[in-house]
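Quick one: structure for this chain?
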Amino acid sequence: MERNKPNKNNMFVIFSVILAACTVLSTGMAQAEKKLLIGTTSSSSSHYGYFVAVSQIINKKVAGIDASVVETGATMDNLRRIKRKQIDLGLVTTNVLFAAYNGIGSFEGKPVKSKLLWVYAIAPQNVIVRADSGINSLAELTGRKFNPGLKGSATEKTSDAVFKALGIAPEAVRGSTGDIVASVKDNRVTGYVKSGSGMNLDASSLDIATMTPIKILGLNTQQKQKLAGAMPELSIVDVPQNGNYPAYTTWGFAVAASASPDLDDETAYQIVKAICEDKEEQAAAFSGAKGVDFIQYTLKYATVPLHPGAIRYFKERGVDIPARLIEK
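Got it. Here's what it folds into:
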């Protein structure tokens, strides 16, 4: 009978082994199931497609991360979601990110300390109107039904500010990109402002142009000078001739990925490394990224401090980080 009694030491060893195995299994599952949410923009935008490619690269190249995209209202919405810890990183424009980080403008007293990861494109703000609208200059938009950009987006906010600075007062029609595209086609709205795909027209503008001839309005010399003085955070972009569309000058800003301050340094480092070293998928998804040196774009156009993980990777590539991009 004595031989049938369980040995307490053996039981302790068995229990310890089981507990250790469960801990390892639990830890492995937790690492494999780490979710990463990426805020984007309207699914009709080419920038949405870009971030779909970004999520796929992250999932392939960054171990232990399950990244997925969330359709949002673009920059303003993404920054608010970062503030509420609803997304981990997202699409931003550098001008609005500057205001958010510094707690000015729409973010007065409510700063969002989002840290920039990388810049991937310059976004000329294309003022598109129907060719049959009779409008040949920006000033002629006054009093006409016009969409300043996707509701809640940086394009909308910036366009409103630009028109105010230039003394132009369209009858603003707010809405989603899809709704406005349909409205322009139906001639219920004269036109809209839409970020370009690099120096090319966005997919939604090309969609309109397929059946509805369009024209692109540019800044004149006086307007360029006035805007440069009133809104120095913007870039004045000279867009070359493209097919049937003559060269023109417009305002613009850089488009980037920016992270929640809670994103850990190692994950940020691995993401930036994967993105900067894999250009083919991004260029295939977003033509504006083709041939772009993300590191140089980031150093040139970033308006807020970089995430420490990004700084680590850039330094590994032998890059000197400007003091303005290092958080004090």
